């Protein structure tokens, strides 16, 4: 079955209420409502359980845009960050701070 964006968002809102009221898990909600578990968890990944997208707004990619890498500066120490299987190298503390701020902004919007 194909679901419209409105149906997906409605399910996510009802599931959030279901979980917040302590009635069960997102998986239990999906099973009780006839939505395949993997499909429902894909919706959560795309729309997020706490931040459903506005009507018609969808995310094409779950990746965070972190900007372009800066050219290496000689004599400075590199910082290496492993983030969900991605290796990120930065050249200065300022760049590291900006990177972490960007990740935080992306995870809260």
Q: How would the global form be characterised?
A: elongated
Q: Order of strands in the sheet with the most strands?
A: 1-2
Q: Helical stretch count?
A: 4
Total number of β-strand segments?
Answer: 2
Question: What is the end-to-end distance?
Answer: 29 Å
- The structural domain count equals 2
Q: Class by helix and strand content?
A: mainly alpha
Low-confidence segments, given as residue ranges, are 52-60
Query: Radius of gyration from the CA trace?
Result: 19 Å
Fraction of residues in H or I helices: 40-55%
Q: Biggest sheet, open or closed, and with what strands and sense? A: 2 strands, antiparallel
What's the mean pLDDT score?
75
The ordered H/E elements are HHHEEH
Strand proportion:
5-15%
Explain this structure to me?
The protein contains 4 helices and 2 strands; from the N terminus they run H-H-H-E-E-H. Strand 1 (79-83) and strand 2 form a beta hairpin. Helix content is 46%, strand content 9%. With 109 residues, it is mainly alpha-helical. The protein is elongated, with a radius of gyration of 19 Å. It folds into 2 domains: 5-47; 63-109, no CATH class. Strands 1-2 form a two-stranded antiparallel ribbon.
């Amino acid at each position: 079955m194909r679901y419209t964006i409105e149906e997906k968002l409605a399910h996510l809102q009802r599931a959030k209420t279901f979980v917040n009221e302590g009635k069960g898990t997102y998986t239990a909600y999906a099973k009780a409502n006839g939505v395949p578990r993997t499909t429902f968890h894909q919706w959560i990944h795309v729309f997020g359980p706490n931040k459903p997208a506005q009507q018609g707004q969808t995310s094409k990619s779950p990746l965070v845009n972190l900007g372009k890498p800066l050219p290496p500066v000689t004599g400075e120490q590199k910082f290496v960050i492993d983030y969900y299987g991605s290796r990120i190298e930065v050249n200065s503390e300022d760049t590291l701070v900006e990177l972490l701020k960007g990740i935080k902004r992306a995870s809260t919007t």
